[in-house]
Amino acid sequence: MAPAKQHSVFLLLCFFITKLSPVLAQTKPVFACDLSNNPGLKNYSFCDPSLDVETRVSDLVSKLTLQEKIGWMVNGAKGVSRLGIPNYEWWSEALHGVSYVGPGTKFSSVVPGATSFPQVILTAASFNESLFETIGKVVSTEARAMYNVGLAGLTFWSPNINIFRDPRWGRGQETPGEDPLLASKYGAAYVRGLQQRDDGDKNRLKVAACCKHYTAYDLDNWKGIQRYSFNALVTQQDLDDTFQPPFKSCVLDGNVASVMCSYNQVNGKPTCGDPDLLAGVIRGEWKLNGYIVSDCDSLNEIFNSQHYTKTPEETAALTVNSGLDLNCGSFLNDHAQAAVDRGLLNETEINRAVTNNFATMMRLGFFDGDPSKQLYGNLGPKDVCTTENQELAREAARQGIVLLKNTEKSLPLSPTLIKSLAVIGPNANVTHTMIGNYEGTPCKYTTPLQGLTASVATMYASGCADVSCGTANVDEAKRIAATADAVVLVVGSDQSIEKESLDRVDITLPGQQQLLISEVANVSKGPVILVIMSGGGMDVQFAKDDPKISSILWVGFPGEAGGAAIADVIFGHYNPSGRLPMTWYPQSYVEKVNMTNMNMRPDPTTGYPGRTYRFYKGPTIFSFKDGLSYSQFNHELVSAPKLVSVPLEETHVCRSSECKSVDALEENCKSLGFSIHLRVKNVGEMSGSHTVFLFSSPPEVHNAPQKHLLGFEKLHLVAQEEGVVKFEVDVCKHLSLVDENGKRKVALGEHVLHVGSLKHLLNVRI
Ligand SMILES: *[C@@H]1O[C@H](CO)[C@@H](O)[C@H](O)[C@H]1NC(C)=O
Ligand SMILES: *[C@@H]1O[C@H](CO)[C@@H](O)[C@H](O)[C@H]1NC(C)=O
Ligand SMILES: *[C@@H]1O[C@H](CO)[C@@H](O)[C@H](O)[C@H]1NC(C)=O
Ligand SMILES: *[C@@H]1O[C@H](CO)[C@@H](O)[C@H](O)[C@H]1NC(C)=O
Ligand SMILES: *[C@@H]1O[C@H](CO)[C@@H](O)[C@H](O)[C@H]1NC(C)=O
Ligand SMILES: *[C@@H]1O[C@H](CO)[C@@H](O)[C@H](O)[C@H]1NC(C)=O
Predict the structure, then answer these.
(1) Which of 386, 396, 470, 655 has a C-alpha 20 to 30 A away from that of 564?
(2) Is 334 an annotated catalytic residue?
(3) Tens of pLDDT along 705-750?
């Protein structure tokens, strides 16, 4: 375009922007009970913040017509102007920063970007619970700030706490990994960070989080099998000891304000239309204080893809009667009235649903009038992308990055001794790739190349046009590698390889990336550092075995400051402390195992190898919790019991006959716990953080896992410093397992506790 023309277009744009600015640039938050505009609202109890939520909600619901209520059962909720209630968009996202996915949030010239933290799988690798919560807190502050200028909602459909069951899953990147305990702790901590208010008022919310996708959802689109109609066949045992625990913890420990049911079926029933899973478990057993929402358009999928129901009205009735409160999509808006007219759905159920929805909005202050007069009312654009927040994004990436190989201490590189660094690979200078999916516009980016160039002189060759790497451009890469003092290769995947609606078939590095790496390594004279940027694990056995490749780092999708964090680790400004939150399988695993097989436990009769470190015994590329440090940490057991007795009444059947396990019921386990003390010493030369993992191998009863995580604790130790770590073990909660019928049991006999290479025998008896 010619410059003169550009000028006139610019003028024209200015004209339009000036003319339309009140419409284009929204700067006010949406809220109900605006007394300054409508003093009559003062007469309504639902607008009175001094009353309790229950009273206010029942007042409001009593004033609404059936049609008005139905309008509040979908994400694009319809305002009721006669009562001073505006339209409200329920769908916002904040998986690892305020996101533009979902119509409730937008960036504009007022807030052009928000802090983009690492994709969750990398944050999980930090194994630092306080980091999980701190990130949540910063994200909710930025979210509130954006709400205050009309750019975001108050209800965020994050986090994703599904178990990363299969390495091919395109959404594994969004999750905290394969372990139920880690996923539970991550979910509860992130939710607390998002929701908890600084005034400590437990019934009110800073923003409302949502734990998704309930349940046994971890297949998107694999060899033509689609999540919309996939029927996950799950045993009661796997459901209760693998898939459900993160959701239970999210509700009970995190006090989350919402749970989202998934697209798939579980054992033949769509999750959003299963009264046992929704009304029974979430509402009945766990007592959710909040709303149950469907995944987007999943009601339509129940009817149109699954053909589970005969009519749309039947679908609407089934889901609401099962306990669904809010529908992402317009299905209930279109069909709930007809379902009522046909007698399939009654107003009592609709009242229940909107009561849950409105109660959440009340707890958010939406019905308290002008937000600028409330707590968080002074937050605004100045509180988004602050220096501190962006520093936390860099810190989170540093804490998550996992060092997987480091022969002859080739890392850290010395920024003074390295005069020239060759930086090579399709992910070496990427921006958007670093922030993964469910992203927002970041404050800014620091690419790996930029991060490294800040410390030393670099030469750069991408080596491949993109991560697919159809044909590697090896010559240019080899030329710069041959002359450099050290080589950093940044490879891996991006959203074209693994994402929502795209599961992988192969788990090797795409295209000719391996060729590029091997050829570059072969000509390099100094250390070769392989940096893998990906969500899921990669079969990089060749790189583990290649003596020319001295170090391997996994950096997840490290967020907006990823390049700075990578450089911090490579040059030793930060001592790596991340540990893998998932097993890295060889390619042969995915060739042998169907992604559709939901079983966690191996089946010797078919040769099915099982899944995750808890059950899978076959070869791995890297294992759950793998990760090296530039330092070394020794563990020593200070105290742990050798014996635990479960008290049982005299008449208990296990007193007269041999039992392999006893029920983990309140009366047997009341305060049945013990503590384990460990001394940890940093015996290396560098300060660093270290995660202590406490595992247990239970006796072999009830198809128990070979090993499971009871707890983890991260501590920071300077060189030669010693620290003490204490685990409080609740026998019924932590040491128990789930039997074939989904019942929690304490196995009797010898439990082997592991910490690093330490083993300690614990006898559990009656
Ligand atoms: C509010 O209620 C008072 C007392 O019931 C009544 O006098 C007044 O007219 C009401 N105001 C409006 C605006 O409805
Ligand atoms: C409304 O429907 C529910 C679920 O079908 C049923 O349990 C309840 O008894 C009904 N209530 C009324 C008032 O009809
Ligand atoms: C690296 O990426 C940045 C940001 O996209 C870009 O400005 C820069 O030109 C790239 N550097 C090279 C050497 O290609
Ligand atoms: C490595 O380089 C040598 C020559 O320097 C060559 O003979 C060999 O084939 C190369 N190996 C690979 C794997 O490229
Ligand atoms: C995988 O699934 C396909 C299709 O259902 C089936 O034919 C095949 O036997 C399964 N393979 C294994 C190893 O279970
Ligand atoms: C955990 O994260 C917090 C918050 O960023 C940080 O202050 C702390 O040092 C971390 N803990 C360890 C042991 O590294």
Answers:
(1) 470
(2) no
(3) 999 999 999 999 999 999 999 999 999 999 999 999 999 999 999 9
Q: For residues 111 and 335, what is the distance between their CA atoms, to the nearest angstrom?
A: 38
Q: How many CA atoms lie within 13 A of 473 on its CB side?
A: 15
Rounded to 10°, the helix 180-195/245-252 angle is 30
Q: Verify whether ligand 1 is closer than 6 Å to residue 40 (CB atom).
A: yes
DSSP, collapsed to helix, strand or coil, labels residue 213 as strand
Q: What pLDDT does 671 receive?
A: 77
By residue range, what is the domain housing residue 707? 632-765
pLDDT digits (tens, 9 = 90+) for 429-450: 999 999 999 999 999 999 999 9
Write down the mean pLDDT value for the chain.
95
Cβ–Cβ contacts within 10 Å for residue 479, how many? 15
Residue 403 and residue 336 share a domain: no
- Please state whether 200 falls in left (phi above 0), alpha (psi between -120 and 50) or beta: left
Q: Are 213 and 358 found together in one domain? A: yes
Q: Which of 421, 447, 464 to mutate to test the pocket of ligand 3 (most atoms within 8 A of CB)?
A: 447
Q: Is the CB of 128 under 6 A from ligand 6?
A: yes
* 518 C-beta closer than 6 A to ligand 4: yes
154 lies in a domain?
no
Q: What is the pLDDT of residues 209-235, one digit of tens each?
A: 999 999 999 999 999 999 999 999 999
Place of tokens 């080596």: 463
- The confidence band for 669, taking pLDDT boundaries of 50, 70 and 90, is confident
DSSP 119: P
CA of 119 to the centre of ligand 6 (A): 18
Check which CATH number belongs to the domain holding 686 and give it.
2.60.40.10
Whole-number pLDDT of residue 439:
98
User: If you take atom 3 of ligand 1, which residue's CA is the nearest one?
Assistant: 43
Q: Is 343 in the pocket of ligand 2 (CB under 6 A)?
A: no
Distance CA 635, CA 638 (A): 9
Atom of ligand 3 nearest to the CA of 460: 13
690 CA: nearest ligand 6 atom: 13
- Whether 523 is in the pocket of ligand 6, judged by its Cβ within 6 Å, is no
Question: What is the per-residue pLDDT across 571-622, written as a single tens digit (0 to 9) for each?
Answer: 999 999 999 999 999 999 999 999 999 999 999 999 999 999 999 999 999 9
Domain co-membership, 587 together with 670: no
Q: Kindly state if the Cβ of 689 falls inside 6 Å of ligand 6.
A: yes
Q: Which ligand is nearest to the CA of 47?
A: 1
pLDDT at 3 over 60: no
DSSP structure class, residue 69: H
Give one DSSP letter per residue of 705-762, joined into a string. Answer: -S-EEEEEEEEEE-TT-EEEEEEEEEIIIII-EE-TTS-EEEE-EEEEEEETTEEEEE
Residue bearing the CA closest to ligand 4, atom 8: 522
**How many structural domains does the chain have?**
3
